[in-house]
Amino acid sequence: MPFRKVAAGGPSGEEWSAMEWWRQTKITALERSAAALEWVARRRGRGPSGPPHIVTGLEGEKVGFFYLMRNGYTVVARRWSSNRVRGDLDLVAWQGQTLCIVEVKTRTAHDIAPAEFSVDSSKRAVLRRLTRQYVRKLPGKTVPHVRFDILSVYLIPERENEIHHFKDAFGWSDGRREWE
Q1: pLDDT tens digits along 101-144
Q2: 3-state class of 103 per DSSP?
Q3: How crowded is residue 161: how many other Cβ atoms within 10 Å of its Cβ?
Q4: DSSP-based three-state secondary structure for 2
Q5: Residue 151: exposed, middle, or buried by beta-carbon count in 10 A (0-12, 13-18, 19+)?
């Protein structure tokens, strides 16, 4: 289908479908390229190393990264850290005008407690402190709307990856219950 100049009012349904198809195609190409580079690295003995739970966590973050991109987010940082606060922000993304801080929890099995339950009050406090540091480094004086999300990623062998996205899972204070 040939691409046409879009009027100022925005793309029509047909043009929007073509643009969305192209965006998804680019994301798929990026994902396949990353997988090919990882394959080459493993063949050369330079694959992911470290304790298995760290390698699993990094794989889950990669799955979460592509999940967010496929769903229209603009991911601007992975594993962002500050020299003032211990810890890191797994994924930092924008959805429109909203800054989304995404904590990724990865499991290789469905345990008794879901993965998202491991984001307890102390982890939420660390994420809030890190987010304050991140927002201070943004250009401009206005503070964007911030949303804290949790992605539960299940990488169960010989099954398709399973992702549960909890948008606005918690706020700036613990005055409200999680996942409501």
Answers
A1: 999 999 998 887 888 898 999 999 999 999 999 999 999 888 89
A2: strand
A3: 15
A4: coil
A5: buried
